[in-house]
Write a structure and sequence with these properties.
By secondary structure, this protein is mostly helical. Helices cover 77% and strands 1% of the residues. It has helices spanning 2-9, 13-47, 49-52, 58-63, 77-108, 111-126, 129-148, 155-179, 183-191, 196-207, 209-225, 228-234, 251-258, 267-300, and strands spanning 67-68, 73-74. Strand 1 and strand 2 (73-74) form a beta hairpin. Helix 8 (155-179) packs antiparallel against helix 11 (209-225), helix 9 packs across helix 10 and helix 11 packs antiparallel against helix 14. The longest helix is centred in the N-terminal third of the chain and has 35 residues, at 13-47.
Length: 301
């Protein structure tokens, strides 16, 4: 009797495994939380050092147009403006193509065609940034030079490279959002006499709009944070953009081109960390926007 009682009260092997699994999950979660908090603290503390330790003006940082940290000129407005311009232009250019391809994949293409397109899109996603940048340098920059003159380096070259880079992401997420719309929506529209295109245009696209907007913002997030490919075609001159074909610089291109040329703790190094902090804040803003749109879409459904 005592033996049975002890057996019932003792922890089984499955219970022990369950406990070890739970501890492992909590340990992984704790590690990730600590890692993220450390990154946020490190970038924030380094980023604000320009204003707290070097006593430079925040207003000058966001509104100034002269960038020469060695002489305490830290105007980041040209880089912020260029970053937003190439991001928005790339998104504007990519969105209609992405929606068109996604509609074809989900509404018209046979299963084999959809699988082949998926494979091509996944291939484009897997190509390293430096390859896109090299193609941009060898093909896009000479093409831009021929079309609008100048050196060929600048916003237009950066936009075209980013357009190709974000296209697979936007197509893939848009196709997923269109596929998630119930078939009954299409069937109801067709039963009421609508053509296939009318059911797509008036019903499917509108129902999938939150997902499409999320796809576009995901693409913009990638475009805003892209560094290497943009650096190779943008010109890397910290000047306010005066046209589509004049050399300029983005936040990321300035960081990658200058980080190795500064000494830790100097004004020049701290100013670069301030640019990194702006990038971090913008990434958080994009993520919050995605969550907001997703939540609004869920409420509407």
């Amino acid at each position: 009797m005592d033996e049975i009682k002890n057996k019932l009260l003792s922890k089984s092997r499955q219970t022990a495994e369950d406990r070890r699994g739970k501890i492992l999950c909590y340990a992984c979660l704790s590690l990730i939380v600590v890692l993220i908090a450390s990154i946020l603290y490190f970038i924030t503390s380094k980023g604000i050092a320009t204003f707290t330790e070097n006593h430079l003006s925040i207003a000058q940082f966001f509104t100034g147009t002269k960038w020469d940290p060695g002489h305490k000129l830290i105007g980041a407005l040209p880089m912020i403006t260029t970053s937003f311009l190439v991001t928005i232009l790339a998104a504007v250019l990519a969105t209609p193509f992405a929606i068109g391809v996604a509609i074809f994949m989900t509404e018209y293409a046979p299963k084999k065609g959809t699988k082949a397109l998926r494979a091509v899109i996944e291939l484009l996603v897997g190509i390293p940034s430096v390859v896109y940048g090299y193609i941009g340098l060898m093909v896009v920059v000479p093409l831009v030079r021929k079309l609008i003159g100048g050196t060929g380096f600048g916003i237009l070259a950066g936009t075209l490279v980013l357009f190709v880079m974000i296209l697979p992401t936007v197509i893939s997420l848009t196709a997923d959002s269109l596929k998630a719309i119930p078939v009954s929506y299409r069937q109801a529209a067709l039963a009421l006499g609508a053509t296939k295109w009318q059911s797509i245009y008036k019903i499917v696209l509108r129902a999938a709009m939150p997902g499409i907007l999320t796809a576009i913002i995901f693409g913009m997030t990638r475009a805003f944070g892209e560094a290497l490919a943009v650096q190779m075609v943008i010109g890397n001159a910290v000047l306010m953009p005066e046209g589509l074909g004049t050399p300029t610089a983005t936040l990321t291109s300035q960081l990658t081109s200058q980080m190795g040329n500064t000494v830790l703790g100097t004004v020049s190094n701290n100013a670069l960390w301030s640019l990194a902090l702006v990038l971090l804040i913008m990434s958080l803003a994009f993520n919050l926007l995605i969550r907001f749109i997703t939540r609004k879409g869920a409420i509407k459904r």
